[in-house]
Design goal:
This protein has 110 residues and is mostly helical. The chain has 3 helices and no strands. The chain is elongated.
Length: 110
């Protein structure tokens, strides 16, 4: 309405958006590269990729198995009353600690 009454200037038409098409030389280069590659070359690349992935997978599985073994159980050690605070109270802030209290000579503790 404002343009109709010449309050606003006439609307300028925007230029249509044109996608950039690859030039003929780029298409020719791509075609030349595709023509020069043989199926044997592609198979060799697939074999190299496959070998790499198998080696990587085996290495990663070994690392994961070792980590699972290391993290599953810590160790078993005997401590005395003086070591209790350091080994149990202070260590339990960073990891879980399981203790077994016993007294020598009691059959249920053996």
């Amino acid at each position: 309405i404002l343009r109709k009454h010449e309050i606003l200037p006439p609307k300028e038409e925007a230029e249509p958006f044109e996608e950039e098409q690859p030039t003929l030389t780029e298409q020719e280069e791509l075609q030349q590269r595709l023509d020069s590659v043989t199926l044997d070359d592609l198979d060799e690349e697939d074999d190299e990729d496959r070998k790499f992935m198998e080696e990587y997978r085996a290495k990663r599985m070994a690392e994961m198995k070792q980590k699972a073994v290391d993290e599953r159980f810590g160790g078993l050690m005997m401590i005395n009353a003086q070591e209790f605070k350091r080994e149990v109270s202070e260590a339990s802030t960073s990891c879980h600690v399981v203790i077994h209290l016993f007294k020598n000579g009691i059959p249920a503790c053996e």
